[in-house]
Amino acid sequence: MIPVPDDPTYNQWLQENSMIMSWLINSMTPEVGVDFLLYDTAHEIWEATKETYSGSDNVAEQFEIGNKIYSLRQKEMSVTQYYNTLTRYWQQLDSFDKHNWSSIADATLYKHITTQRRVFQFLYGLSNNLDAVKGRIIATKPLSSLHEAFSEVRREASRKVVMLKLPTQSKGFALVTHSTNKP
Question: What count of Cα atoms within 13 Å lies in the side-chain half-sphere of residue 115?
């Protein structure tokens, strides 16, 4: 709420409002920020940018992110790169979610289901050379958390890399026998 000019806090509000307006406009690209230079309050700028640029109802963008998640495979990426890419996509998709839970139990159940799906998505996209660790994770009861699954897969991938780099000890051993043909 804007104080009236007679209010003793008006000058402080005016300074703080100007500072926040400056932060908001300076955080925008010049071609976007120029449209907001004539607004009177930081609140007006905030509301206008939210209405203009918010993607919270952008179904096409949600679809695109979901498609990226479901088609993402580890391929040549390291396990960490693959996991971080998936996590970024999940965070982008989560930004669209708006929930009004009727109870904490509902929120907890939703989180559990979402985590389980994400563990499956993570494991599904991993390279085939990690099938053994995928099988171990799926076989655990209860199913590992996403962080635990990532940690176990990362350890296994690191172990495989180390094993491939070890020099092979292929020095042959010969068994020498002496036979004495004595009648």
Answer: 15
**Contacts with 56 (C-beta within 8 Å, 6 or more apart), sequence order:** 95, 96, 98
Distance (Å, whole) CA 25 – CA 36 = 7
Q: Give me the helix-helix angle, 42-53 and 10-26, nearest 10°.
A: 30
Distance CA 156, CA 138 (A): 15
Report pTM.
0.62
pLDDT in tens, 24-78: 999 999 998 999 999 999 999 999 988 887 766 778 888 999 999 999 999 999 9
Each domain of the chain, given as residue ranges in start order, spans: 10-53, 59-165
User: Chain centroid to CA 60: how far?
Assistant: 20
